[in-house]
Amino acid sequence: MMSASLATWVVLLPLIGFGFNAASGLLLKDRQLQRKAVAYVAPGVVLLAFVLALALLGALANAPDHRLFAPLVPGTSLQHPWLSIAGFKADFTLVIDPLSVLMALIITGVGGLIHVYATGYMAEDRDQPRFFTHFNLFIFMMLLLVMANNFLLMYVGWEGVGLCSYLLIGFWYVNSDNARAGNKAFIVNRVGDLGFTLGVLAAWSVFGTISFFNAAGGGVMQLAAHPGGAVDALGHPVPQTMLTIICLLLFVGVVGKSAQIPLFVWLPDAMAGPTPISALIHAATMVTAGVVLLVRCSWLYVQSPLALHVVAWVGVLTAFIGATIALVQTDIKRVLAYSTVSQLGYMVLACGVGAFSAGMFHVLTHAFFKALLFLGAGAVIHAMLGEQDMRRMGGLRKYLPAVWGVMLVATYAIAGVPPFSGFFSKDPILDAASRAFSGDGAALYAIGLFTALLTAYYMNRLMWKTFYTEPRFVDGQLPDKHPTNYPEEKHEGEAHGHLHLVPSSMMIPLYILAVLSAIGGLVLGPTGIFERFLAPSVAPLSLGGLQEGQPLFSTTVGYIVSAIVAIIGLSIAAYLYRQHMQTGELLPEEAKRTNLLYRFLDARWEFDAVYEWLFIRGGAQVARFLWKSLDEEIIDGIVEGIGAAVAWVGRTGRRLQTGYVRNYALIMFLGGVILVIGLLAGLMRY
Amino acid sequence: MVPTSYYLVLSALLFIIGTAGVLIRRNPIQIFMCVELMLNAANVAFVALGRHFGQINGQMYAIFSLAVAAAEVSVGLGIIVAIFRLRETINIDEVNLLKQ
Fold first, then answer.
1. Chain A: residue whose CA lies nearest to B16
2. For the whole prediction, is pTM greater than 0.90?
């Protein structure tokens, strides 16, 4: 069991790093020492965790059923309870199976590279300890999420990464826009988390357990995989309606965390954080948590065709909408953000048509090339002293040839040009979509393929605007003052239009990711290594009695079509921008204002406007009604009315007290008369 | 023999006159006299009813009430003298400190 308990340390190492960074930020007074300490420890623990995760890979190969368990707290037994309330049991157990090890490798591997990169990117930031503290905490939470063996422990990680995302989006909190973007991400994710919570409770009430797997059987996924249909802990069959409800509720959580329509609006705003955060959290790892959840629960999903159908369509529409919005973005990071939304849509689509392993493969390749794109964009932004608007870039190929090179690799990868990695992960998804069990494979395939065309186009648009067209930053068009994240600090002595050098700590991770983006897909995809590796973790469609539909055409033709579409998309962008080398703009400003389609895309399909109108204004209206009408008029009316009535009685009653003895005597007399009349009336009755 | 009801009507009339006087008059001496009138109206009723029922109680209470009335008048006149010494008037409309 020595090897399985390595998993404990994979998870705990980043937590130790978190503690160390927090302590050094608080205790070390010397800024230089502080920076040096965190810059070595933070990437160090993550890379060490990566090495341990590689060792887990070896342990897994020898394990029966390709599944091992490890306690989260070292030295405790596997059954060590965390919670046990009236039949609701949860323990601190980690599961080691191909899915969790794959994700652990992505998180610690790509995450470690981004840590190294961040030591260069954040070198001038005064709050480096805080940055790396949150960064390590994020890695810990993410590992907890993917390796947890029950829904509740996963939920801790799920919320933990949400918290870290919030903290890091608002890292430069001095600017209230950043803080607001953090709030938006947190609040929109709450909507999804509510669905996730209800899904977990539904799963518990149906199955009577929340563990995914147990060594002796009886975990939720093992019960769901019961031959002849899912059963609960007592062996009674579970109705399909309940499975559908569980799956749809869990999918609400996926929609929130993985930025699907209609909850994707938080992800582009999350770009307010420093670029390494965008790369790590909002591209490579956290947003794929939803896909991980789908794959983890694939045993449930394959038994609910309705839920899968919903998943597939939400995914493909997200892919399409994300790509169309990316067409018109001018902020380099926002293009990438919408492309992330779009690529997440592909992954969810893959899960929706039952191609879970293709979806996970796209998670893997996407982690490589999207991290590379973000880090490359970060290098550009770093060189441009914080400028993110592509309208003020151009011609950077001459100044940043290495960055241009790696960005080109990433662009080809995401566009799906063979033999780059995106080609081998995107095409299987399209292929699986065309053979969807639900029979609407042609529609899914068509939308997916068109989205691939858009993807190739907007990525090459980004390349042209940034690297090829005439420079637009030297001729006095840069803003007068360089944007800085702390108003009181100034970049001294850095002249207009000068480019910053990109340090090697930032370039080395780029090279590594570029190699992975270039050949990772070719090595793992067509050879079948990846699919065979992941197979024990994903449910086959046949478990739910579902059949793949007829393919539109053979796999080889599909490959060729995908490749041609990618090259067409790239070529259109190149052709169009070649004609506008000077400005780097296809449409004049005037046309941008009047073109309805452009305005619709620029307004992100009006999603934000609808939310603004429906929830923010609507919420304000409801609040105003409760405040003005309910509270101030009705409740305050009652309270103040009682007070006023008492005062009125007092004011009126005061007049009785005249001080004249006669008046008192009269009242006494009248009282006597009433008394006598009353007595007489009482006597008369007898 | 005069019927009992006549005495009671007389008693009631005396009582009403007394009450009216108490309420209307401003001179405390007159008010006292009216109070006496009310007391004696009650005495008339006591005695009349005592005779009507052939019981001695009525006359007995009338004697008691005369004694109480004498005591009350002596205390009341004492208060009036004290008020006059203090304020140099006995008009009860000017003696309205109870209002405070």
1. A669
2. no
